[in-house]
Design goal:
It is globular, with a radius of gyration of 15 Å. Strand 4 (120-127) and strand 5 form a beta hairpin. Helix 1 (2-22) packs parallel to helix 6. It has six helices and five strands. By secondary structure, the protein is of the alpha/beta class. Mean pLDDT is 94; it is low at 168-174.
Length: 174
C-alpha cells in the first residue's frame, strides 16, 4: 500500500508543477475516493496557485443534481461507467471553472455494486483538448482500491499534461 501512496504523491507533485508551469487550474469530482484525491493534491506545496476545489458526489442523486450527469445515463448504466466518469469530469470542470478536472467512480467494496466487481474503477480527465477516460482494475481492500484510484487519476492527468507539453509521460511509456 505504501508503494501506491508514494506513486500518488509523486504523480500529484508532477501534476501540480506541470499545471503551474502551464498556468492552468484543476478541479476534482470524486465518488469512491471520497475526498482522498483532493487531499492528496493539496498536500503539495504551491498547490493554491492551481487547485480550484472539488466536489464529492458519493450518492447517485448528487452525481446528477450537483455535477450534472444526465439522469438517463445514470438510470441506464449506473454510476460505475466510463461515460459517467466523463460526465463527472466535464461537469466538474464547468461548475468549478477550471482548465482541467479529474473524476473518479468505481467500486471499492467489500461487495460488488449493481453487478460491477470490486476494484472496477473509471477515472477521467477533462481539459482543453477534450476528455479521456481510463479503466482501472484494482485489487485489495477498500483503502488500497481508493489509493489506487487516486494514483490512476493523477497518472492519467500527468500523461495528458506531458503530452500537451510534448514531453514523455511521468512513470514511463503510455
Amino acid at each position: 500500500m505504501e508503494d501506491a501512496a508514494r506513486a500518488a504523491d509523486t504523480s500529484a507533485a508532477a501534476v501540480v508543477h506541470a499545471l503551474a508551469d502551464q498556468r492552468a487550474t484543476l478541479a476534482v469530482v470524486e465518488s469512491l475516493t471520497g475526498g482522498l484525491l483532493a487531499a492528496t493534491i493539496v498536500d503539495i506545496a504551491g498547490v493554491s496557485s492551481v487547485f480550484r476545489g472539488g466536489l464529492v458526489a458519493y450518492s447517485t442523486e448528487l452525481k446528477a443534481s450537483l455535477v450534472g450527469v444526465p439522469e438517463e445515463l445514470l438510470a441506464s448504466r449506473g454510476p460505475v461507467d466510463p461515460d459517467v466518469a466523463v460526465a463527472l469530469a466535464e461537469g466538474g470542470r464547468a461548475r468549478c471553472g477550471a482548465d482541467w478536472c479529474l473524476s473518479t467512480t468505481g467500486v471499492a467494496g467489500p461487495e460488488p455494486q449493481d453487478g460491477k466487481p470490486v476494484g472496477l474503477v473509471y477515472v477521467a480527465a477533462a481539459g482543453p483538448p477534450g476528455t479521456v477516460v481510463r479503466r482501472l482494475d484494482l485489487s485489495g481492500n477498500r483503502l488500497r482500491i481508493r489509493i489506487g484510484a487516486v494514483a490512476g487519476a493523477l497518472r492519467l492527468l500527468a500523461d495528458r499534461l506531458h503530452a500537451e507539453a510534448g514531453e514523455s509521460p511521468v512513470g514511463g511509456a503510455r
